[in-house]
Design goal:
Elements lengths: L28 E12 L3 E4 L11 E5 L4 E4 L5 E3 L1 E4 L5 E7 L9 E7 L5 E7 L3 E11 L1
Antiparallel strand pairs: 1-2, 1-3, 1-10, 3-4, 4-5, 6-7, 7-8, 8-9, 9-10
């Protein structure tokens, strides 16, 4: 059973990986999803169409200066905190909650590798996890 989930997130599209090696965390990036996987506690995991889990935009803009990411098509945004791993990967994390379709609140973590421009993201509620993979480029 598919559930509506996080409306601000983006939908899967093919996107050429571009190096972010010249980018600094203060540089905005545009990220596109390549795949979305939904895991439910009692049903296992499956790859899903992003629209089936409430993803309304095809691209997400990450604004490091303002600490927000927003759906490019919808303009909906969410705040994040930023950190960097010892290996140089960028980690964004935050919460969304209590809006219709948000399943009572979720937490998310997005990790971007600035060398390859690839990212992975996990979004979790109490009984559902989305695993999202994609690529980013500088704006």
């Amino acid at each position: 059973m598919m559930k509506r989930y996080i409306p601000w997130l983006t939908a899967a599209v093919a996107f050429l990986p571009l190096s972010l090696a010249v980018a600094k965390p203060k540089t905005n990036v545009l990220c596109a999803l390549n795949s979305v996987h939904q895991c439910e506690a009692d049903q296992g995991c499956e790859q899903v169409a992003p629209e089936l889990v409430g993803i309304q935009s095809r691209f997400v803009e990450v604004d490091f200066k303002k600490g927000v990411m927003r759906g490019r098509r919808t303009g909906r945004q969410t705040s994040f905190t930023f950190s960097e791993t010892p290996g140089g990967r960028w980690v964004l994390q935050g919460t969304e909650g209590n809006e219709e379709g948000d399943l009572g609140g979720v937490g998310y973590v997005m990790t971007i590798d600035p060398e390859t421009a690839d990212f992975s993201m996990s979004v979790a509620s109490s009984d559902l996890i989305l695993g999202i993979f994609g690529s980013c480029t500088n704006l």
